[in-house]
């Protein structure tokens, strides 16, 4: 099936959305599974909404995710250019041929006239839609409208028959012709619409399979009819792509996940330190299954197993907790060196390590990262978890709320006993530190471990929740640990 060609064609408006990424992923996996071609195309004909900033963010996001494309921006290919804003002459030529061939016509209806049509249809309980007012205008009528100064749009002439296709996800789908009225291809200012440019590019780029969101299901009859017209005017070879409409991604309250939902923003996951492998792993589960209840897999494994008939037609609910859990699983699967490499840029941005890190900093991380790997849900948390081991002595601070809760007057005796026990240690090791503090605080002062080690933990790490205490103290060393314990005694 190496002749399979799929496409991912987002518009560069706003920040990338996880639902959009799920669409890209399914197309990528399908192409990789069958040895086909993954085309990346930019639909940027909406000059009022598209931006270069969003375009750059799209490319950067796909690169970060590892969804490599075979044709498209920066890669090229035989059917370029792959930005629609660079193909406007092509669309103008196609529109002219559709007009000449009688597949489209100029419509002079004003916005007020169209509104009146819709209102009348509502009153008469008819399906709303364009009523074909300008379908069969004579040359004299067109000239009269133009003499009035009326602008015209280009409308496609829908055939008077029902449209049926076998959807790859949903099975047989039929739309009655009365529900698919003639639609606009080109605005009055000459700007082509999605309804024209998308099928034209699919036809000219030899796209064989269209996998896209369920929200575009109702546009499929229009596109199938347009493909037939494009073949008649010689723009395509007559091949109509196979369609598969992916299920909605739902958010809270059983409603479709929208750009307004915080969890929909791809950049949020990157900033918070989600691994691209983990995010793609989770998004793959939104409507697709490996089978055998397997939920943890690489993109290579997904591509090897991906079959479109395993995509569900039912809506999929986005669960941030599940996504975070899978991210934690992926973090735990990394080698220590790989995890350090991924954490390092965040530590450098926080001023905790140099870039590149010094030998001493590398040594600390080599010891510290295994202590936090099991606890991490995202890479961002690593800064807070190991920062106390890397910060300069004069920059070490206590979390105010934690210090207030734990380092009161009652803690002074605990800290003093801890200092005395630790100063006497002949060997500074995890086990020796543990035994000394246990003997002095739990057995000597009769404290429960929670109350015995809580003040020590805050004094050493600056917070009540931290990596393992005794291992952390070994990494810090005797002098720094004792200095922090002594400093904490003055906190009230």
Automatic annotation (TrEMBL):
<dbReference type="InterPro" id="IPR020058">
    <property type="entry name" value="Glu/Gln-tRNA-synth_Ib_cat-dom"/>
</dbReference>
<keyword id="KW-0648">Protein biosynthesis</keyword>
<protein>
    <recommendedName>
        <fullName>glutamate--tRNA ligase</fullName>
        <ecNumber>6.1.1.17</ecNumber>
    </recommendedName>
</protein>
<keyword id="KW-0963">Cytoplasm</keyword>
<dbReference type="InterPro" id="IPR049940">
    <property type="entry name" value="GluQ/Sye"/>
</dbReference>
<dbReference type="GO" id="GO:0000049">
    <property type="term" value="F:tRNA binding"/>
</dbReference>
<dbReference type="GO" id="GO:0004818">
    <property type="term" value="F:glutamate-tRNA ligase activity"/>
</dbReference>
<dbReference type="GO" id="GO:0008270">
    <property type="term" value="F:zinc ion binding"/>
</dbReference>
<dbReference type="Pfam" id="PF00749">
    <property type="entry name" value="tRNA-synt_1c"/>
</dbReference>
<dbReference type="GO" id="GO:0005829">
    <property type="term" value="C:cytosol"/>
</dbReference>
<comment type="similarity">
    <text>Belongs to the class-I aminoacyl-tRNA synthetase family. Glutamate--tRNA ligase type 1 subfamily.</text>
</comment>
<dbReference type="InterPro" id="IPR033910">
    <property type="entry name" value="GluRS_core"/>
</dbReference>
<dbReference type="InterPro" id="IPR000924">
    <property type="entry name" value="Glu/Gln-tRNA-synth"/>
</dbReference>
<keyword id="KW-0436">Ligase</keyword>
<dbReference type="Pfam" id="PF19269">
    <property type="entry name" value="Anticodon_2"/>
</dbReference>
<dbReference type="InterPro" id="IPR020751">
    <property type="entry name" value="aa-tRNA-synth_I_codon-bd_sub2"/>
</dbReference>
<dbReference type="InterPro" id="IPR014729">
    <property type="entry name" value="Rossmann-like_a/b/a_fold"/>
</dbReference>
<dbReference type="InterPro" id="IPR045462">
    <property type="entry name" value="aa-tRNA-synth_I_cd-bd"/>
</dbReference>
<feature type="domain" description="Glutamyl/glutaminyl-tRNA synthetase class Ib catalytic">
    <location>
        <begin position="4"/>
        <end position="322"/>
    </location>
</feature>
<keyword id="KW-0547">Nucleotide-binding</keyword>
<feature type="domain" description="Aminoacyl-tRNA synthetase class I anticodon-binding">
    <location>
        <begin position="340"/>
        <end position="488"/>
    </location>
</feature>
<dbReference type="InterPro" id="IPR020752">
    <property type="entry name" value="Glu-tRNA-synth_I_codon-bd_sub1"/>
</dbReference>
<dbReference type="GO" id="GO:0006424">
    <property type="term" value="P:glutamyl-tRNA aminoacylation"/>
</dbReference>
<dbReference type="InterPro" id="IPR004527">
    <property type="entry name" value="Glu-tRNA-ligase_bac/mito"/>
</dbReference>
<dbReference type="InterPro" id="IPR008925">
    <property type="entry name" value="aa_tRNA-synth_I_cd-bd_sf"/>
</dbReference>
<keyword id="KW-0067">ATP-binding</keyword>
<dbReference type="GO" id="GO:0005524">
    <property type="term" value="F:ATP binding"/>
</dbReference>
<keyword id="KW-0030">Aminoacyl-tRNA synthetase</keyword>
